[in-house]
Amino acid sequence: MPHLLRLTLLCAAAIAAPAPAQASDLQDQNSVALTYADTADLALAAPVAAHVTLRRARPLRAEQAVGVPPGHSRFLVEADLTALIRGESGTPAQVRYLADFPNDARGRPARLQRGSQWLVFARPVPGRPGELQLIAPDAAIPYDSAIADRVRAIIRAELEGDAPPAVSAIGRAFHVPGALPGTGETQIFLQTARSQPVSITVARESGAEPRWFVSLSEFVDAGAAQPRPDSLLWYRLACFLPTQLPAAAIADAREHAQAIQSDYRLVREHLGACPRNRSRG
């Protein structure tokens, strides 16, 4: 089965579902508490996201499994499609993929329970119906309904007409001083994967707290709210904007560099960190 050896693993991390048939030492070892960013990384990168029920899992011989991490074994997994979260409607009812799982306490390939539930994030293998190529080595994880619901919400948000695009870099930043000291407005233009217009505006008015908002069009939307934590817009900004504003962004506004840098720090502080718990892939 040389074509199967070209497959790589992806699993979506989650917490084991409560049914006894789904709980095992292997699943506990393979679980990690996924953050919103972890889930978005997987959901947005995978053409196929599916809830599957394991039918059988056969460990491969060492010569068939190249690049397996120490302490793991590679399995050929056959599973029933329980629910297709994302993917072509013609996806077969049974799928196969390769996955790496940690060995048991004796260093032997672990036993995967028939009937256990998993989330997988993958690509279809062209010309081979039912075969999946998992998108990252850490992506087959025990099914959890809360993670599955989060995946669905992320995918729905991505498919909306006004969905925030992926941010690739910061473009130019400009500042217009106000009539009074300490007042003014800063605009920071972002570069995006599909060249869609995105800008951040920070407004400072006398006697009021500074406010900032994001515009997803060429027009400044002063009525827009700040990104809600654990939302797709928050993810696009908090997880991909640099910590410091690049010097090139203020090359055309050096006389207002201090105000622009201060406003950018305000935005970064409000967005907060982008925690991730995945260690592989």
Number of helices: 5
Distance between the termini: 25 Å
Radius of gyration: 23 Å
How many domain modules?
2
Structural class: alpha+beta
Contiguous low-pLDDT stretches (5 residues minimum) are: 1-24
Overall spatial form:
elongated
CATH topology of the largest domain: OB fold (Dihydrolipoamide Acetyltransferase, E2P)
What is the number of beta strands?
Answer: 10
Task: Give the fraction of residues assigned to helices.
Answer: 10-25%
Q: What integer is the average pLDDT?
A: 87
Name the CATH class of the largest domain: Mainly Beta
Series of H and E elements? HHEEEEEEHEEEEHH
Highlighted features:
281 residues; alpha+beta; OB fold (Dihydrolipoamide Acetyltransferase, E2P); 2 domains; six-stranded antiparallel sheet; four-stranded antiparallel sheet; elongated; disordered N terminus
How would you describe this protein?
By secondary structure, the protein is of the alpha+beta class. The protein folds into two domains: 4-159, OB fold (Dihydrolipoamide Acetyltransferase, E2P), CATH 2.40.50.120; 167-271, no CATH class. Helices cover 19% and strands 29% of the residues. The protein is built from five helices and ten strands, in the order H-H-E-E-E-E-E-E-H-E-E-E-E-H-H. The strands form two sheets. Strands 1, 2, 3, 4, 5 and 6 form a six-stranded antiparallel sheet that branches. A hairpin with a 7-residue loop joins strand 2 and strand 3 (94-102). The longest helix has 15 residues, at 145-159. It is elongated. Residues 1-24 have low confidence and may be disordered.
